[in-house]
Amino acid sequence: MARNLTTIAVLSGLILVMVVATNLLGVRLFDRLAINLCISLVLVLGLQVFMGNSGILSFAHIGFMGIGAYTTAVLTIPVRMKGMSLPDLYPIVAGIELSPYVAILVGGLTAAAVAAVVSYPLMRLSDAAAVITSFALLVVLHTVMTHWSEVTNGPRTLFGLPRATDLNLAAGTAILAIVAAVAFKESRAGLLLRSSRDDEVAAGAMGAHIPRLRWQAFILSALFAGIGGALWGHFITSFSPKAFFLKETFVILGMLVIGGASTVTGAVFGAIIVTVTFESLRALEAGINQAKIFSEQVIGLTEIVLALAMIVVLVLRPGGLFATQEIGALLWRRARKKEDR
Amino acid sequence: MPDDSLRIIDVSVEFSGLRALDGVSLAVSPGEILGLIGPNGSGKTTLVNAITGQVPIASGRILRGTTDLTGNSPREVSLCGVARSFQVVRLFNNLTVTENIEAAALAHGDGRRASRDKARSLLAKFGLEARAEDMALGLSYGDKRRVEISRALAAEPKYLLLDEPAAGMNEAETAALLSILAELPRTNDLGLLIIDHDMSLIMRLCDRLHVLASGRTIAEGDKDSVRSNPLVIEAYLGTGAETAHA
Prior knowledge:
The complex is a heterodimer.
Chain A: H1 2-25, H2 28-54, H3 61-76, H4 79-85, H5 91-94, H6 100-119, H7 127-147, H8 149-152, E1 158-159, H9 167-186, H10 188-198, H11 200-206, H12 210-236, E2 238-239, H13 246-259, H14 264-291, H15 301-316, H16 327-340
Antiparallel strand pairs in A: 1-2
Chain B: E1 6-15, E2 18-28, E3 33-37, H1 44-51, E4 59-64, E5 67-68, H2 74-79, E6 82-84, H3 97-108, H4 112-125, H5 141-154, E7 159-163, H6 171-187, E8 191-195, H7 199-205, E9 208-213, E10 216-222, H8 223-228, H9 230-237, H10 240-245
Parallel strand pairs in B: 3-8, 3-9, 6-7, 7-8
Antiparallel strand pairs in B: 1-2, 1-4, 4-5, 9-10
Helix pairs in contact in B: 3-4, 3-5, 4-5
């Protein structure tokens, strides 16, 4: 228990330090970076809840982020703007204009509800079959987003969301996500799910209802994704279905894999490391292009570095930077060793 | 008192046309230890897998008391009070020793605190306290076996099926395990079915023996009658390799 509280304290502490530092600095650029990081944290922690505890790679996560974003968009775009943003919107919902804070929650719940329905038959699958079906699920969700013009404005950019996500909201949500991810991992369902991750046969023989456990984790995971997507929607205020597909999936997976999927600590550090590296590389890329060092424009540096980082980490530390133990457990172990001396 | 024994009635198992088990029947009662022996490939592990639902059976029935376990999933069998260990140890490698045992108690329906207490007392019973917070992955082979048996016991089974529980243990470890196993039927009121190649362990531990060869029962009964059965001597005890192994 003390270890789990230490883990929560250290990880939330990192976020709080970042919030305080950003407020003191008062630079707009850092504000944007910090909000982006907090939203990524919510998404990565959501993926960790399912993938880390069940051991099953899921590609569908970003699809549920999209559900959250579009749900909150439909519910919050001001009524007078809906005629332009979503001209074909069904009349029943056209008159709705909720507070963004309520709508963000509804976005999360909608993603969770969709996950509950579509994922149930998939949870019996393991290994490659589970990975491929989750990929298929992402493609289905993406296709629906691209073609359901009434609700999403089709492949075109949807605009008009009120800007509601500030650093405090994003950071608060990220801290809640940390607490929820640790609590789930240590809960009855979390422990049984982790048993099935390590040995499915033995967990079944012990009486664990593996498909149901996976299902619970998947729903919780989609709730995080939906809330993360809605937060992002109210930060960026306009987006198209392209935002919820392969590139985003790769970034979020990269964060989790580099940090270590099995631990909440890994998810948090992975998100921080990748976000900071990404922003630095983007700045570097812009600098190089502005200084016209090369005759051609340099593009794609960020993706290539992320891909290489993923390969290097997987070769050297297949479980990621924090493969098995949370930061709390590591600190307690170190403290005990010092006492022993 | 109603008969609560675990009965396997005329069970056959086929793997793509090959008969791995052919009409085997046996029964274990609460409080007794039954030894299941036979040469390699005789179907001992397959029988345990059939009882616990890991492999489907082609014909026959499996009953605990009046409850029909035939065709149940491993999970359902486990919830009916039949626990097992595996020939190749299957621990949850990235969980601590305590968590391994806690998980089984939780799956059985215990609460958080009850599971932790149960894990603690089982660790004490098996002399694993020093390993409580270690990851299961790093344990010695003997410790892994002990954790696996503790985990099976955490579900408070009425029947425990142990597939080579002493494999890979040294003599001292085997002796310690033997004294714990010998007590179990009485202290936990459970029926124990043990597969092992260590004949001295089997002879010291078991009340009755059941001998399989090529998927068929060739002998059953008390130790002495089985030991003197010519079929058993020919199929199992007589072969040089097996006695050397024992």
